[in-house]
Design brief:
Three copies of one chain form a homotrimer. Chain A is an alpha+beta fold. The first copy, chain A, has three helices and five strands; from the N terminus they run H-E-E-H-E-H-E-E. In chain A, helix 2 runs parallel beside helix 3. Chain A is globular and about 45 Å long. At the A-B interface, strand 3, helix 3 and strand 4 of A face strand 1, strand 2, strand 3 and strand 4 of B.
């Protein structure tokens, strides 16, 4: 894998500091070489639902922002994103109205980010669903699992 | 394990070709001997909610059809279903009204299929929830993890 | 790790017998040293939604009760909770109204239990979402993954 930190720079991506967990838990847990990352929402405290308050395009951007928060946790956990062997699994929770049907297009914001950053190692299994509501009225939360290179 | 492809035949099950991912991601990702399968819905593009548009019995059949799509991905990923060591985990997302309460009976359509096909190796941990909405108005999506025999 | 069964006693926690699976599946599935536990709700068959029928504080208590059901399954699966190496991942499904926004505070009921019981080994990655509905109108379901010490 090419140097991921260089790739971030060439993409114009500046990672935020990892946000604090919203409650009494940790940002990540390692089991073997699988790193489980806690659910992360976009920065900036946006509040609203897809299908009511936000368009699919806005949702896409929020999913990308949530993905950046995931990358920030990864960087904190691993020291370097170069230790990511592959993105394994992403679940997207989309705060959505009962008639919304473009959840997959929203989640693409996060999937595209992973492919941009990790190339073929960014390809992942994923699923997405509409949530009746999310903490702090966030529009989207990303739950994720990564395979990493152990020290 | 007996030959699973023979068992499929005796059950009268003909696997569909694996459907294309609905967006920019892959159908599956392997980490160690865990195979993570992307969320799959039933074939035929059904649209509707449990508790409004579909009965629990119809939901059961859609969950079984979604399970067939999962098996199709497995067969494509592994070459043969004989390489499945066990079904580990199934999550069911049921597109459901706020007062629906038979999500577990819907998910049984998928669980029963796994037991039919894999016998005792088909026993799995699982969970199920009601989604406010799902992509393309699908009635159910199955998210799954399998343990496989590595080459 | 200190003796967990002693710690349970000092916390005044008496584990219930593991509840039967609500449908055709098992309470847990082991893959390598990861133990996947099926979704568990609180005992007592409470029915209702956060944001409508229950306060956040009531939800917190239900999440703790659901966590006790998870521990009961763990004890049954492992013989002793001393074989838990760490709590890896918790997902909380909160039966919630469209405008509820304290899902994380509800899930703390389960997270705090894990920290009370397992100490630093109880720290876990987690995520939480609002479900439009849950089986049997349960207020909360906990889905979980543990790393265990193999025999």
């Amino acid at each position: 894998m090419s140097n991921i930190m260089d790739r971030l720079q060439s993409l114009g991506i500046v990672l935020p500091a990892a946000s604090e967990p919203a409650a009494r838990y940790t940002n990540y847990a390692l089991a073997g070489d699988l790193l489980f990352i806690s659910g992360k929402g976009p920065s900036g405290k946006p509040k609203g639902k897809l299908g009511i308050d936000y368009t699919t395009e806005e949702g896409y951007r929020y999913a990308r922002l949530a993905g950046l928060e995931v990358l920030a946790v990864l960087a904190e956990a691993l020291g370097s994103l170069n230790r990511v062997r592959r993105v394994v699994k992403i679940q997207g929770f989309v705060n959505a109205s009962p008639d919304f049907e473009e959840h997959h297009k929203v989640l693409n914001g996060c999937s595209d980010l992973m492919l941009d950053v990790f190339g073929e190692h960014g390809l992942h299994a994923r699923s997405v669903l509409g949530a009746s509501s999310l903490r702090d009225h966030l529009p989207v939360i990303i739950d994720s699992v990564f395979e990493i290179v152990l020290d």
